[in-house]
């Protein structure tokens, strides 16, 4: 207890020193002419207006990449910076720059070491567009810092962007294989046997092709992230067979088995017409279904996504 009391005394004694270290060093503005300068810049960039961009930049402007690994960047000149900004509107359809939801720009005027009366503007951005050549979607967060002079010219710009999207765009100009498609494969055979077991009312055999940890997704569920288990799948199939007579299941086209190089994915894509009769009113129904079955290395289905129109099964 004595040690605890002395600890509290020491901590409390130090509080005035901590408080004394607090010192204001300027003002943060939610509205300021410097913020208007950056808004004008964004409008000019989206419009591809080189003259307006040039008018907003100081003659001694420098631009910097905030995520560069080069510590001694020399900075991008005004001319090169303008050329870089113009590429956005030239290369992207539906190009836009907006505030990140829930954020807004700040203008900060520091008191210390600010003889030139510089105002900093910081923004949190959402940059959107679709690359015209490749169709790659840009939906990227950004953060920017600007120095604005007392005559409302942009002296410095520092940008922080996720540059991985540019790698995807660059790779999309070339043809890059990502695995092999098979017309015949043991995993295709498993999907066939799974479906035809169901046609013959053999639920147990149909479910034997799934891993015990399989996750099922149904496109009709309101939440796309909703999954259900093997036991829940069994209950669903039992309810289906109690309500419908399955007269025939026919494959549409032929299944494809895809082995992906990336992530070692293994998927069977298949398309089916399920012919059934509803027991309650003898209504004949043809249900078109698309299945995407992912397999593990042991040939068991570990994930299944089913696409079909559930409303066809509902009684009017």
For this entry, give a set of tags:
7-stranded mixed sheet, alpha+beta, Nuclear Transport Factor 2, Chain: A, 2 domains, Nuclear transport factor 2 family protein, 316 residues, 30% helix, 14 strands, 8 helices
Task: Describe the overall structure.
α2 (33-47) runs antiparallel to α3 (50-56). It is built from eight helices and 14 strands. The protein has helices spanning 2-20, 33-47, 50-56, 78-91, 164-171, 186-199, 203-207, 230-243; strands at 26-29, 57-65, 92-99, 106-110, 119-131, 137-148, 154-161, 180-182, 210-218, 244-251, 256-259, 266-278, 284-295, 301-307. The model has no long low-confidence stretch (mean pLDDT 92). It has two domains: 24-171, Roll (Nuclear Transport Factor 2, Chain: A), CATH 3.10.450; 180-313, Nuclear Transport Factor 2, Chain: A, CATH 3.10.450. The strands form two sheets. Strands 1, 2, 3, 4, 5, 6 and 7 form a seven-stranded mixed β-sheet that branches. Strands 8, 9, 10, 11, 12, 13 and 14 form a seven-stranded mixed β-sheet that branches.
